[in-house]
């Protein structure tokens, strides 16, 4: 259903059309050529570091003049050292296996037909993201390795940085003998260019929004192009009746406070009532030390007295909030089933952890909780492509279709069936469901 | 992102919410219980055959009064014999392996964490389809086996039949101890109920439209719920320079004419110029005998003279048309690459076949053609879940995300990661890309 073949092209659609052509050329390219292009990219980033940081300085200056928060400016800023680190990440992608061509299933039918299901690139991948220029290079490298053309639509506030980066990437790719149009920055800084990407069904195979909840929601709700929803994480730690309490404190602290601004950090603590009296004083004291503010139910507020923790009453809204800060909602629950019920109601389906010494409790929790990742006696922070051993990550999918959880290179592919016979034809006219 | 928790419920949303609850209860149910429910369904369909055919007779009568085409009425009609066949299909689903719980990947990380990726149900599956009451039972059986709740939105013209069928299914499911709400007919016959399903993001996990191109297009373009696009098939047969001509005639005839109204039948023939003079007279005579009308380019029209085939000049529109009739577009191409280019331009990406004796040509064609299925020396008609050995099929996906080609039970699942440790926490605060 290519809806767009007859329409006059805007710059965005023209870019998408060029990406489509380039993707077709890239799809059958063997790994050695793609790896050579990646190495050329890594070298070029380091060599041309000065022009990249010069362009980036303009973005940073504009952001500062606009009164942008320092944390955002920090994410936006590129230095020679940071560029070297980005280049090093590209080199590590070289070492990852090429997913394209992998035979996922293969068998011979009773009639002698050979059926093979083989991984192929998705085609054209659109990435919509915020003011992190490192994503420009990461996404381009992962898409290139998996045989996809990429349309990069970064934040307007990083437009100069991204323009410089993409110029470096394209020159390196062209130098390695591949079409430069496999990597393109979506032209224009306006919101309209995002809207155009979202409607480019038939030209763009998938859109992956990465960033804040409102960006993701806009893309998910308005796009006719298939979308992979990423990122929102209202993660829970449930401390079961039979938990090792010291372990539970360690898992809780790590889940909540090791790094607070990320999607796999915990936002809510649920404690089984049978261990609440023993566990909460320990946990709340540790949370106090970490500087965490607790939004508690009545039982938690009562336990907080004298522990030194800052505690405020939890509102209905707290249970559904992804704080991304040193805040934690906390409640005492009467049972594992009540914890599961709470999670089902409020979780964004990213990651939930149980701390328990009981095998039946672990089994029941992992069966009943429907999230991308269920952790048993481990921190929620492990839900991450790097931690899972994928070597790289294009995002964490929180939807159920196509990919769920951390997405590595295989998640940037589709499959096709190759059926081989000796002139095989079908015998009887049985019903085909699909058409 | 459950957008709907605060809204007042329409009957459709209320049904979706009940489905969601029922899906949560169904997800951990073991295979033996689901299989018992399927057997109960099969028995009940046969036992209550009379009330189903009585309801169906009302639909048929209304359709006939409305002047509906006989082919559509034939698809709509249920007889005791057809119901017995549908029941037998349900019994065959019992024999298929349960995809839920399958460990897709599993390994231990260097830090000792066990990671397992396990198949889980999608949750709530919405099926939107046309006037084929057999789909009601097929879809319900496949969703039940894969642990999903299903919302069935059939054609208004089959509403009485579907109401009777779903009543039988629900009673059987309840009798087997499962919540009846795992199978629901979407209330109302209006188009509005389809629109509501399409906007029920957060309640419905995936929509699968099955039927004509306009239905599929409406759902694909208007839905905020993830959609699996199915079915449109503008399939090609390419006869290469080194083809066995008798084999090519056999594959072409079977692809075009064995059953014309299905998505995996061929609509366009492409012939390499080096064999056109030898192949076309044979092929066109065979097509004439099968009653096929050829829409040819100049070379084909010239070759058609004296073969007895009905031949008309092909228009630009012909190359993009899914005839679903005894019509075939046909052209002579200068090379394999030109055939690939033609396919890339006009194909719907369903199935393309090459007939060739050349290994390099077969390899090149399968590499370059980007469709759900590429057949070498075999009919396009094999793209089918039954033919592929899946035992059952919920449709044929023509999109790249999640599932591509015939979809069986595994394609009705998602996965989740289960991560198990001994109190594992993350050591250093490295960057998490996803959020």
From TrEMBL, chains A, B:
It catalyses: L-glutamate 5-semialdehyde + phosphate + NADP(+) = L-glutamyl 5-phosphate + NADPH + H(+). Residues 9-290 form the Aldehyde dehydrogenase domain. Pathway: Amino-acid biosynthesis; L-proline biosynthesis; L-glutamate 5-semialdehyde from L-glutamate: step 2/2. SUPFAM superfamilies: ALDH-like (SSF53720). Transmembrane segments: none annotated. It holds the Pfam family Aldedh. Catalyzes the NADPH-dependent reduction of L-glutamate 5-phosphate into L-glutamate 5-semialdehyde and phosphate. The product spontaneously undergoes cyclization to form 1-pyrroline-5-carboxylate. Belongs to the gamma-glutamyl phosphate reductase family. This is Gamma-glutamyl phosphate reductase. The gene is proA.
């Amino acid at each position: 259903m290519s809806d767009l073949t007859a329409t006059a092209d805007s710059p965005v659609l023209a870019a998408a059309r060029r990406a489509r052509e380039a993707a077709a050329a890239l799809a059958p390219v063997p790994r050695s050529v793609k790896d050579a292009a990646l190495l050329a990219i890594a070298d070029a980033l380091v060599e041309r570091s000065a022009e990249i940081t010069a362009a980036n300085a303009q973005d940073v200056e504009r952001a500062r003049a606009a009164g942008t928060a320092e944390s955002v400016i920090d994410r936006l800023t590129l230095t020679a050292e940071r560029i070297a680190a980005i280049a090093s990440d590209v080199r590590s992608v070289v070492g990852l296996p090429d997913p394209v061509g992998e035979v996922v299933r293969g068998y011979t039918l009773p009639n002698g037909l050979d059926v093979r299901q083989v991984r192929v690139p998705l085609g054209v991948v659109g990435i919509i993201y915020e003011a992190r220029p490192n994503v420009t290079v990461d996404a381009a490298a992962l898409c290139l390795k998996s045989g996809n053309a990429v349309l990069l639509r970064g934040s307007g506030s990083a437009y100069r940085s991204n323009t410089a980066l993409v110029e470096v990437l394209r020159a390196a790719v062209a130098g390695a003998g591949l079409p430069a149009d496999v990597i393109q920055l979506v032209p224009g800084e306006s919101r309209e260019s995002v809207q155009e990407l979202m409607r480019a069904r038939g030209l763009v195979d998938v859109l992956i929004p990465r960033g804040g909840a409102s960006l993701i929601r806009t893309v998910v709700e308005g796009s006719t192009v298939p979308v992979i929803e990423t990122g929102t994480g209202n993660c829970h730690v449930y401390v079961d009746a039979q938990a090792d309490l010291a372990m539970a404190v360690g898992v809780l602290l790590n889940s909540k406070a090791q790094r607070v601004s990320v999607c796999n950090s915990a936002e809510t603590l649920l404690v089984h009532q049978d261990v609440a009296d023993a566990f909460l004083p320990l946990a709340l004291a540790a949370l106090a030390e970490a500087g965490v503010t607790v939004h508690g139910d009545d039982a938690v507020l009562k336990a907080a007295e004298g522990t030194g923790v800052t505690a405020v009453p939890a509102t209905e809204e707290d249970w559904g909030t992804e704080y991304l800060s040193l805040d934690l909602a906390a409640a005492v629950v009467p049972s594992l089933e009540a914890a599961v019920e709470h999670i089902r109601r409020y979780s964004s389906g990213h990651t939930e952890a149980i701390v328990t010494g009981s095998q039946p409790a672990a089994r029941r929790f992992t069966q009943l909780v429907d999230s991308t990742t269920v952790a048993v006696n481990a921190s929620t922070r492990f839900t991450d492509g790097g931690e899972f051993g994928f070597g790289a990550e294009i995002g964490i999918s929180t939807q159920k279709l196509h990919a769920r959880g951390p997405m590595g290179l295989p998640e940037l592919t589709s499959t096709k069936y190759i059926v081989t016979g000796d002139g095989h034809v079908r015998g009887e006219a049985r019903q085909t469901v699909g058409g």
